[in-house]
């Protein structure tokens, strides 16, 4: 390898200067090197003020939009908190958001990334009303720094992942569950990440990590584990194992109003029967017996009931088949999430904060993830005394 090639490969500064000299020495449309150099420099100097002015105009417009949006958000939340804008921390948060939004400005349209701007405005407003140096305010400031590093599809992915793993959809049976999932998630169809590498980037950005999967390795498993009541089948009394005592039947069965003549596992108790114990002690508790009696004849009725109850749940394959028949676009969406590995991504606090703001933009007036992003309990806040507006 020649010295010049080696220099080029490693972006040596001398080689860069040599490239410039070579360019200015070559003829440019019959103009000799020095004339070409002078022409290009003059072209840049003549246009730079105009280009700079246009860029500044767009940036200023975006910054003004951000300021107005933040003020509107604060006023809607609590107009008395407007005095918090005097705080240096508030001005710092606003400045960071304005700069990030201004950088997205399009000189052709004069507009910035609207979704990012709206999300930043909400984050800044929340940070401003919080007490300086509270854990909540610190986390919000961190979210303001992270947000500009993510795309709209990545924001959407955070929202979908948080909703699927942390919340439950309404639905008394599988058909109603699928309908509600399809209706809620349809705005995200075609607008989430599609590649595993994007999750890697999101982890590097600080919104989560790859780790142990909390509910399952794919979205169908997650949905099944979180919606057991809706995904339990009705059954005939004759199908119940004879070993299940009448007392257990009275405790755990009820008429299935969905099908009329059948029974079902009581929705409020189905988790007791179908959840995997975390320890021998938990297993003994679920069998209503002592640790030494888990496999005794006295625990046999509960063992039989647990096996029977688990068999009444739709399997993941049955669930996917039902989704494909009733809402094929939802099934395609679920497969897309699985292909990208979304269920293997563990969101952190910053990820949940960003997802919460995206959801509040898409579904105004909701606070779906509120309990997940409250970092300070009311008792600790009370112990610290009333929050100041200063």
What does this structure look like?
It is elongated, with a radius of gyration of 30 Å. A two-stranded antiparallel sheet has the order 1-4. With 390 residues, the chain is mainly alpha-helical. The N and C termini lie far apart (65 Å). Helix 3 (33-78) crosses helix 4 (88-102), helix 3 crosses helix 5 (114-129) and helix 7 crosses helix 17 (349-362). The protein contains 19 helices and 4 strands.
Q: Which regions are unreliable across 5 or more consecutive residues at pLDDT < 50?
A: 212-216, 378-390
- The overall average pLDDT, rounded, is 85
- The proportion of residues forming helix, as a percent range, comes to 55-70%
Main sheet?
2 strands, antiparallel
Strand content: under 5%
Shape: elongated
| Strands in their spatial order, largest beta sheet | 1-4
**Succession of helices and strands:** HHHHHHHHHEHHEEHHHHHEHHH
Record field, number of beta strands: 4
Strand-helix topology:
Blueprint: H1 3-9, H2 13-25, H3 33-78, H4 88-102, H5 114-129, H6 135-146, H7 152-166, H8 174-185, H9 196-205, E1 208-210, H10 219-226, H11 246-252, E2 253-255, E3 263-265, H12 270-274, H13 280-286, H14 300-311, H15 316-326, H16 328-340, E4 345-347, H17 349-362, H18 370-373, H19 378-383
Antiparallel strand pairs: 1-4, 2-3
């Amino acid at each position: 390898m020649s010295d010049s090639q080696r220099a080029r490969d490693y972006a040596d500064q001398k080689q860069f200067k040599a490239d410039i000299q070579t360019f200015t020495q070559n003829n440019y449309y019959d103009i000799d090197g020095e004339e070409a150099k002078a022409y290009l420099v003059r072209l840049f100097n003549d246009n730079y003020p105009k280009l700079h002015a246009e860029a500044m105009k767009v940036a200023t417009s975006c910054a003004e939009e951000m300021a107005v949006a933040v003020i509107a958000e604060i006023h809607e939340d609590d107009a008395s908190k407007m005095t918090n804008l005097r705080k240096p921390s508030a001005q710092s948060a606003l400045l960071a958001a304005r700069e990030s939004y201004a950088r997205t400005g399009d000189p052709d349209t004069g507009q910035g990334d609207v979704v990012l701007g709206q999300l930043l405005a909400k984050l800044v407003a929340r940070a401003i009303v919080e007490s300086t140096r509270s854990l909540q305010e610190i986390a919000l400031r961190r979210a303001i720094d992270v947000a500009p590093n993510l795309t709209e599809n990545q924001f959407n992915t955070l929202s979908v992942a948080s909703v699927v793993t942390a919340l439950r959809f309404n639905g008394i049976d599988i058909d109603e569950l699928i309908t509600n999932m399809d209706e809620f998630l349809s705005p995200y169809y075609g607008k989430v990440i599609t590649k595993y590498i994007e999750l890697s980037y999101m982890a590097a950005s600080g919104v989560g990590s790859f780790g142990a999967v909390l509910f399952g390795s794919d979205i169908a498993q997650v949905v099944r584990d979180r919606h057991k009541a809706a995904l339990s089948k009705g059954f005939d009394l004759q199908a119940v194992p004879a070993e299940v005592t009448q007392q257990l039947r009275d405790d755990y069965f009820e008429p299935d109003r969905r099908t009329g003549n059948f029974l079902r596992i009581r929705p409020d108790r189905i988790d007791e029967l179908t959840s995997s114990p975390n320890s021998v002690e938990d297993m003994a508790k679920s069998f209503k017996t002592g640790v030494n009696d888990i496999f005794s004849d006295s625990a046999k009725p509960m063992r039989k009931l647990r096996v029977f109850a688990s068999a009444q749940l739709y399997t993941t394959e049955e669930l996917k088949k039902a989704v494909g028949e009733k809402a094929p676009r939802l099934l395609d969406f679920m497969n897309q999430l699985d292909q990208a590995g979304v269920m293997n991504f563990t969101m952190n606090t910053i990820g949940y904060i960003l997802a919460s703001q995206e959801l509040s933009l898409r579904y105004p007036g909701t606070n779906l993830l509120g309990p997940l992003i409250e970092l300070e309990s009311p008792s600790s806040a009370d112990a610290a005394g009333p929050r100041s507006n200063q």
